[in-house]
Design brief:
The chain contains 22 helices and 27 strands. It is of the alpha+beta class. The chain has four domains: 171 residues, Beta-Lactamase (2-Layer Sandwich), CATH 3.30.450.40; 123 residues, Beta-Lactamase (2-Layer Sandwich); 117 residues, PAS domain (Beta-Lactamase, 2-Layer Sandwich), CATH 3.30.450; 226 residues, PPM-type phosphatase domain (Phosphatase 2c, domain 1), CATH 3.60.40.10. It has a six-stranded antiparallel β-sheet with strand order 3-2-1-6-5-4. A six-stranded antiparallel β-sheet has the order 17-18-27-26-23-24, with helices on one face. Strands 8-7-11-10-9 form a five-stranded antiparallel β-sheet, with helices on both faces. The longest helix is centred in the N-terminal third of the chain and has 40 residues. The chain is elongated, with a radius of gyration of 50 Å. It starts with 6 loop residues before the first helix and ends with a strand. About 1% of the residues have low confidence.
Length: 758
């Protein structure tokens, strides 16, 4: 005995030693059980006694160079032919021993916890797993922790039950009917037992097409890719768990066919009790009709005795096609998760002619059996359901009043419209005025007189004032129901909530009034703009002849009045005997463009009287655009012609260059440096000059003469030069020709000034 240990430490060491000895004894017992099973196989095959079988097993193991346990496992695999035997063919010789030892321990276990411990010790721990959970699937698709190993008691207690609908790895495996591999539980966002163990695989545990539960194996770190041999081992262990869960299932979870038949007979709707038909490879091929209840009505008119005993696809061959009824039954049988729907198409054959009906269907699993219940929707019920939805969408509430008994029937929509609880008494039609706006009482009295006294159908619109203070715009229509003698028996009709339509009409009317006012204001504004522009810039201008120089002008306003812009021109003889010619273009349209044009044109005239040159005039004009106007941006060309020297000095502010026509040819003058007017407060402008010769013509114009939306500007200017080269007899003919053959398509103002030296 170790000295210095406390009694508690000695007791803990003793318990640990006894636990290890117990585990070794359990493992030894599982191994001995396999050896004894192999001996029994040899007794049956060799027709010998137990002693001779034991001696033969030892001799064969010695000759094969293997242990007695390994040879015993090989013999069991040879004769069993099950899934564990198939997995045992893997290259790893220890796999078969581990799996058979785990199976032996599971078969001799007292409960599912012992099964989980056996699987963990013999089969899963060697794969690196640190914990295992065996989940049992309930009839309501809930999950119960039937067995576990590797988890603390507190953790297992917290996860002893998972309600239906909680998305865990085990539930995914149950619903998807396939193994679910989780690399990292934290990243997956799925809750599950043992959150500190990130890697895990959840495998459905089922036999005969029915999933009894899920086997969930956990690893201490993120799950690395597993070889196919490991997945096969886990599937074989899951099948072993399914057999264990079926054998240990609580009696209330497995319902006998007779009990389920009694339950079905108590239902008023047609019901079938189905059991699976399983192929040799374990797959479901069909379901057999074990019982049809007393309320059963066959879709094809057959008696229930004809249906009972047949397979589902034999009785209803179209169940696998129309509505996928067979797939739904198979899924419910596999997962235990109930299926319900209000509308499903059911089909059958009558004399080889398919007949389809719409029904509400319910499918539930009870142990190994499935209960299918349906309720066919007849035409009356279907139309009533359709009418109810139509009334709800149309916000219509219906009513009927019996005059003698005073009985009043309202549908749910009418209670909602009145803002009254369904438990309250309906409002008689004769009291409708008491719930209306006072201004509508007079029209409602006329409506009631027509219906109740004159016995005529009538309608009225009024404002319904509800108890909650809300006012609804309502239209009511009613008709009398008369006896053959003309006596009033009842009144029926409907209310319709037209509040949305009313407010839409009010808003539309207000919008139309506003649009009409806006349109009138726009017309007046455009008219004023056009009058202002035409007063200052008439479409035609008399040709100016002064000091041997002729100046002609053509101006064409925009095609649309609302696009009236700020194009301007000027030609005037200054006190210095020089001639000022200018063109410009204000950005924008309407009043702002027209007033900006007036400001710049008049400012240039005034500044020109100072005798300054074109560059200086444009510089001053830029200051005017920046400081004395409301954010005007414009282009302009200013030219001063001296009759004595025949020199025209000019400057440009972002404007297109002039065109010089000389000796039948036309070309653009240089593109002098100069920013737009109003772009910068401080700007300098370059000045150029041209010596005019007899017969020369100089064209100044705005972009409305040349620009096209789909053509580069250089090509547009080339087209202008080509047009100007055409032969002409005088200046007026040239300007008219340019306007008529201009290729512009921008619908902008157009201004062209021609300066000719005869």
């Amino acid at each position: 005995m170790t000295t210095g240990q406390s009694p508690v430490d000695r007791l803990a060491n003793t318990i640990d030693r006894l636990r290890k000895e117990l585990d070794e004894m359990r493992a030894g017992a599982d191994s001995r059980a396999l050896v004894e099973l192999a001996k029994g196989v040899l007794v049956e095959r060799l027709r010998c006694g137990p002693a001779q079988a034991a001696e033969q097993l030892a001799l064969l193991a010695e000759h094969a160079g293997t242990t007695t346990l390994e040879l015993a496992v090989d013999i069991i695999n040879e004769v069993s032919g099950d899934n564990l035997a198939a997995v045992a063919n893997e290259p790893d010789d220890t796999t078969a021993v581990r799996l058979r030892t785990a199976e032996s321990g599971a078969l001799h276990a007292d409960d599912t916890h012992a099964v989980a411990q056996s699987l963990f010790d013999h089969a899963l721990a060697p794969l690196g797993a640190t914990a295992v959970a065996i989940w049992s699937a309930g009839a309501d698709s809930s999950l119960t922790l039937a067995g576990h190993a590797g988890f603390s008691p507190g953790e297992a207690s917290r996860w002893r039950y998972v309600p239906p609908g909680v998305p865990t790895p085990a539930r995914r495996a149950l619903v998807e009917r396939n193994a679910v591999r989780i690399v990292d539980l934290g990243e997956s966002g799925l809750p599950s037992i043992g959150p500190g163990l990130p890697g895990r695989i959840a495998t459905p545990a089922g036999t005969g097409g029915r999933i009894a539960g899920v086997l969930e194996i956990c690893w201490p770190g993120p799950l690395a890719p597993q070889p196919m041999s490991v997945h096969k081992q886990l599937e074989a262990l899951a099948e072993l768990c399914a057999a264990t869960l079926d054998s240990t299932a609580a009696p209330n979870l497995v319902q006998a066919p007779s009990e389920l038949a009694d339950l079905a007979d108590g239902l008023l709707d047609p019901a079938l009790v189905l059991g699976p038909e399983i192929s040799p490879d374990g797959a479901i091929t069909d379901f057999q009709v074990h019982h049809a209840n007393r309320g059963f009505v066959d879709l094809a008119g057959r008696s229930r005795s004809v249906i009972t005993g047949k397979s589902l696809l034999q009785a209803y061959p179209l169940a696998a096609a129309e509505g996928n009824l067979f797939d739904k039954i198979e899924r419910v049988h596999a997962t235990g998760e109930p299926f319900r729907t209000d509308r499903m198409t059911l089909a059958t054959l009558i004399d080889e002619v398919p007949l389809t009906v719409t029904a509400a269907v319910s499918i539930t699993r009870h142990g190994a059996l499935v209960l299918v219940v349906w309720r066919v929707q007849d035409e009356t019920a279907r139309l009533a359901n359709l009418l109810q939805h139509a009334q709800r969408l149309g916000r219509v509430g219906g009513f009927e009043e019996e005059r003698h008994s005073g009985r009043i029937i309202w549908n749910s929509q009418l209670y909602t419209l009145y803002g009254r609880a369904p438990s309250t008494d309906p409002v008689p039609l004769s009291e409708i005025a008491a719930h209306a706006h006072p201004d509508d009482v007079l029209s409602l009295n006329g409506f009631l007189h027509n219906v109740l006294r004159d016995h005529r159908q009538a309608s009225a619109a009024f404002r319904l004032q509800r108890p909650d203070g809300i006012t609804r715009h309502v239209r009511v229509i009613a008709e009398p129901v008369l006896s053959p003698q003309g006596e009033l028996l009842a009144v029926r009709g409907a209310y319709q909530d037209v509040s949305a339509q009313h407010w839409t009409e009010v808003a539309l009317s207000a919008t139309q009034d506003q649009l009409a006012l806006t349109e009138q204001e726009a017309l007046e504004r455009n008219k004023l703009t056009l009058q202002l522009q035409q007063a200052i810039m008439p479409p035609t201008h008399p040709t100016i002849e002064a000091f041997g120089l002729r100046v002609g002008v053509r101006y064409r306003p925009a095609a649309q009045e609302e696009l009236v812009g700020g194009d301007w021109y000027d030609a005037v003889v200054l006190p210095s005997k020089q001639i000022l010619v200018s063109v410009g273009d204000i950005t924008g349209h309407g009043i702002k463009g027209a007033t900006g044009m007036v400001v710049l044109r008049n400012a240039l005239r005034g500044l020109a009287a100072t005798g300054a040159g074109p560059a200086q005039l444009v510089t001053w004009l830029n200051l005017v655009a920046n400081h004395l106007t409301d954010n005007i941006i414009a282009t302009a060309i200013c030219g001063l012609y001296d009759p004595h020297t025949r020199i025209l000095r000019w400057a440009r502010a972002g404007h297109l260059p002039p065109v010089l026509i000389r000796n039948g040819d036309a070309e653009l003058l240089p593109m002098l440096r100069g920013l737009l007017l109003g772009a910068l407060a401080e700007a300098s402008y370059e000045e150029g000059e041209v010596q005019l010769e007899p017969g020369d013509t100089l064209l100044l114009y705005t972009d409305g003469l040349v620009e096209r939306r789909d053509v580069p500007l250089d090509d547009c200017l080339d087209h202008l030069c080509d047009t100007a080269r055409a032969p002409w007899s005088n200046l007026d003919e040239l300007l008219d020709h340019l306007l008529a053959h201009g290729a512009s398509n921008t619908d902008d103002d157009t201004c062209v000034v021609g300066v000719q030296l005869p």
